Every structure is written in structure tokens, then in C-alpha cells.
Amino acid sequence: MDFLCEQAPDVVGLTQEEGSLLLRKHGLNVKIKSTYHQNINTNRIIRQRAIDTLTIELIISDEYCNDPTNDPTIEEKEV
């Protein structure tokens, strides 16, 4: 039985590498589209959609990811 795109895991917010790997592990093909690129190392998936029963298109952008954990001026506090 094929794993259909309708049952694909939600990978929005993951990195391109993480999302692609997860979808491929489920037997799906992955097509990548980029929307905005500033040569930042971390690209995030901002949208996913089924193209056919076995192919997911991932929309990638690096403007979406401004990870505060990479900011050295922010202190981690235990709550």
C-alpha cells in the first residue's frame, strides 16, 4: 500500500533537510521551491502541498527563520 500525500506528516517549520528526510522515509517524493533567499544557512519550510498522490512540494524560505536561540545576547533562564 502506498503512503498517500493526504497522510503525509506536517513538516512546516522544519528545516528543508529535516522535512525532506521525513517525507522520503514515508515513501514520498519531494519537490523543492524557494521563495526568498539571503544565503542564510537555515532554510525553513513555510508551506507544503500535494502535487500528486506520491509527491509533496515544499516551499522554502530563509526569511521565516529568525531563531532567537542563535542570539548570544539572550540569556537562558530556568522557570
Give me a quick take on this structure.
The protein is α+β, with helices and mostly antiparallel strands and 79 residues long. The chain has one helix at 16-25, and strands at 29-36, 44-52, 55-61.
Rg calc? 15 Å
Specify the helix fraction band.
Answer: 10-25%
Biggest sheet strand order reads 1-3-2
CATH fold descriptor: Trypsin Inhibitor V, Chain A
β content, as a range? 25-35%
Summarize this structure as a short list of keywords or feature phrases.
single chain, 79 residues, alpha+beta, Trypsin Inhibitor V, Chain A, 1 helix, 3 strands, 13% helix
What does this structure look like?
The mean pLDDT is 79. It is built from 1 helix and 3 strands. With 79 residues, it is an alpha+beta fold. It has a single domain, classed as 2-Layer Sandwich (Trypsin Inhibitor V, Chain A), CATH 3.30.10. A 3-stranded mixed β-sheet has the order 1-3-2, with helices on one face. A hairpin with a 2-residue loop joins strand 2 and strand 3. The N and C termini lie far apart (47 Å).
Task: Give the topology, please.
Blueprint: H1 16-25, E1 29-36, E2 44-52, E3 55-61
Parallel strand pairs: 1-3
Antiparallel strand pairs: 2-3
